[in-house]
Amino acid sequence: MRLLRFAILAIVATTFSACGSTYIVRCKDGDTLAIQDSLYFGTAKPNGVVTPDDWSGFLENTVTPRFPQGLTSSRASGQWRGSDGEIVREDSHVLLLLHPDNAATEQSIREVIDTYKSQFQQEAVLRIRSATCASF
Predict the structure, then answer these.
(1) What is the SS3 assignment for 51?
(2) Average pLDDT per run of 10 along the chain, which is 136 residues long?
(3) Nearest C-alpha neighbor of 134 from the set 50, 45, 30
(4) What pTM does this model have?
(5) Spatial contact of 122 and 90, defined as CB atoms under 8 Å apart
(6) Would you give the end-to-end CA distance of the chain in angstroms?
(7) What is the residue-wise DSSP string for 27-74?
(8) Which of 67, 68, 81, 126 is deepest in the core (most CB within 10 A)?
């Protein structure tokens, strides 16, 4: 019983310690190690929606100056649970950014997220960050 308890504790400790660790990605010859951020932007706001023109302006004035090397923007639809517990279904935009892992890029992504939340009265922007290999 004591051995079983120790084994369970070891598994739990390993699982939680993995959340804070850095994943090791080994790229093949010709590939470059990069970070891919996937950002999910909702379009519903208190007095309407983020229009296609609003989104285009946001890309042009906020995102592109910080990521002139390129980006991918796609329309999507999704759902999430708001702070009031209600399920919200809405159109959204997905922004994919491939970039080096450095402080300047991190600051730029935070500025993009903060600007969108402020400009369009958003509760949150979902960010998924992963290490990947890229080639062009």
Answers:
(1) coil
(2) 41 43 78 95 94 98 97 94 88 96 96 98 95 91
(3) 30
(4) 0.78
(5) no
(6) 55
(7) PPTT-EEEEEEEEEEE-EETTEE--HHHHHHHIIIIITTT-TT--EEE
(8) 67
